[in-house]
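Build the 3D complex.
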Amino acid sequence: MRVLIVDDQKINQEIFSDMLRSLADTIHVCDDGQQAVDYLEETENLPDIILMDVMMPVKDGFEAAKEIRSKFSQRHMPILFLTVLDDRDSFGRCLLYGDDFILKPVGRSTLIAKVQAHYRTAKIHNEVARQRDELSTFREQVKYDYAIAESIFANLMENTSKSIPGIDFITTPSTVFNGDLIVVANRPQGGAYVMIADATGHGLPAAISTIPASRAFFTMAAKGMALGEIAIEVNRSLVGFLPVGMMMAASLIEISANGLDVSWWGGGLPDGFLLDSEGNIVNALTSTHMPLGVLSAKEFEADLVHFRLEAGQQLVFYTDGLTEAADKHGEQFGEQRLKAALDGTKTPVIPTLLEAVNGFTPETKQDDLSILSLTFPVCNQDAVTEPLDPAFISGLAIKSQLYFDKDALQSLVVMAEVRQFLSGILSGGSDLDLLCSVLSELFANATEHGLLGLDSKIKDDEDGFLVYYQLREERLAQLSDDAYLALDVKYLPNKCQLVMSLKQSAGGFRSDDFEVTKESEDAHGRGILLVSELCDSVRYSEEGTRVTVVYQIGGQTQI
Amino acid sequence: MSITSDVDNTGKKVTINVEGPFGFNLVQEFRESYQDKQDFQFVIDFRKADYIDSAGLGMLLNMHKYLNQNDGQISITNCMPQIKKILLISRFDKKFTIS
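Done.
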């Protein structure tokens, strides 16, 4: 305990110090109020108790106490007045400006008792204040963390396709964070992917485990992968990420472009239901797999159920928050009540089910609760999605030549090398694929008709196709030493244009050789048509040994 | 670059999966997947194909000719938009069902 004694009488300073010596660790003395205020402002260790004489020169005790109170309002320092004034008015002022008073002459036991009592109160007071400050700092921190986490989850869900006719869902978290997940992605080939998932537990820990799952889902969906492969990837992203005992029950659904063919992978969610156009339950979909995040990649099973639905039929999936919603006696809503609410209902499924479960459990929900309904056909007009990671397009102007001599032409898969080169300008996406189609065409023509002198008409005969490519192999093996192909690539970033010029060392191209119409049914000649459709311009020069095409990146975005 | 096929002998159905570029290097493999299966129903899954050239188009036409089935009886499914575009430019929707 640290004590400050303020008294103008040296003898009093001595007496009080002596009385408190056994109690206090340090005792500081001041001669008047002003000295006390100055001392408090300078010291690093504020006293726990102040004993204050009332009548002093320079600044009296009441004045000093007033100043100390206002300057150190954040900290509780009990001020005990030591006074000879015994009128009621003075007592009142003592309690107004300080915390207590002791009449002079001061008895030893009274002083010790009062100092100890006030020390206890001050200690408790300061401890509570410290805890209060700690709590409010903690609360601010949590509020900040939640705000950040919420925006992360909002960003995560931004990829989900919001309005595909026929797909309807609701997911209501029990806290701010949701361990349930319903995500919908457009299928690049048309149609859609849907995932409904329920991570173990609820709140933030459960919500966190939905992050890798939804990332994997969207990445795979953007590539148009098969549902089984998406299931494998989502599982892989969770195994090793989730602590033991955490897992994710889920149903993954792929709807093909016609809106009726469905593939389904189910692991660990309660039975889904198939309803006919009258709303009657026709069938239950029982999961046959373990939840995601449990089995290693080796053990994981990705076999699917495929079925074709009829117009008007519905699929309903939900998480166990629905069936396990309990009333005040602890009884659960259960599958029987769910089926009763569902069966034969013509009204939309989700509001019907919510009404039924809310009527059963008027109290607040205990778990995250989600319902997904698919009404067939699911017509996704918005089939083409922006890729998750937009393709990198170089900002540098590029001018380079790729050169293929005899050895290269014989040993390399030319287009694989060219694609690798082009991906330095354009990292992916449909433009890269279309460019490869164009160049593949030009290389095929230059090689087969130019260098190898093959006649496309061979392909017309029965089995001509095989003969043609056998001949190609043979002639390629006998290619003359000075044969080459050279591809000049000029990339103009400001125009987003690629000018590609392919030079062949032998043979020439006469355009009347390749006169084709769109209606042509021959097995050859289609290539030049393709190139001219995909490119802004196609030009032959140098007696047909050079072809130059201009390709506009982003020009095909209407696909 | 490869061709795999799932043959359902009871349902008389073959699903041919194409992976990577669909061009002349696959001519043998592709042919084997439909040879001697005139009475089968064919689905070609282009989900993992990344581009197609005229050799690939020719291979499809060859298949159509060889199987001698009605137009539209062979389905090409799961085409990425860029491949679908090439099939449509070449009017393959007249001979195949493209979805």
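Residues 385-389, 512-521 of chain A have pLDDT under 50 and may be disordered.
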